[in-house]
Amino acid sequence: MAKLARWNPLKEMLDLRDDFDRFIDRFFSKEFDLWEGPRAIDVDIYEDAENIVIKAEIPGVNKEDISVSLTDDTVTISGKKAEEKKIEKENYYRKEIRTGSFSRSFTLPCAVDREKVKATYKNGILEIVLPKAEKEKAKEIKIEVE
């Protein structure tokens, strides 16, 4: 005797949603070469009374492969993450670890003292401390009124 299965009116909708989710995951996964190019780095930028501080997540990159430059009111962080070992592309099931170059630039909200800028890189976090430039003190000028 055949068993009857209880009909669930939402089952087809749930199956369709699952199929769509799998499609989107595959399409937007980093397995495809569509997304190759400079990778983005995540940063936090904040200020306190004396400094502007930039913290950037750059895991897996050697300190020697990171460059920080300061021009006018812009800080640029760039570098390259090398691929560790050459593995044939067809042997991958998933490839989400990004390699290649990266670069991001940020406009500073105020003038900084270029001579005192310090950067440290530890545990995949680059921290750049940019001391704010001292504001010129107001200068009193005597003006003779005739």
Descriptive overview:
The protein has 146 residues and is mainly beta. The chain has a domain at 37-84 and 95-131: Immunoglobulin-like. Helix content is 12%, strand content 32%. It has one helix at residues 11-28, and strands at 42-47, 51-57, 66-71, 74-81, 100-107, 118-122, 125-131. The protein has a four-stranded antiparallel beta sheet with strand order 1-2-7-6, with no helix packed on it. Strands 3-4-5 form a three-stranded antiparallel beta sheet, with no helix packed on it. The longest helix has 18 residues, at 11-28. The chain is elongated and about 115 Å long. 8% of the residues are buried.
Provide a compact summary of the structure.
With about 150 residues, the protein is mainly β. It is about 10% helix and about 30% strand.
Query: What amount of the residues lies in strands?
Result: 25-35%
**Runs with pLDDT <50, length 5+?**
none
- Give the N-terminus to C-terminus distance in angstroms: 117 Å
Helix content: 10-25%
**Which structural class fits the helix and strand makeup?**
mainly beta
Number of helices: 1
Number of strands: 7
- What sort of overall outline do the alpha carbons produce when their principal axes are compared? elongated
Features:
elongated; mainly beta; three-stranded antiparallel beta sheet; 146 residues; Immunoglobulin-like; 12% helix
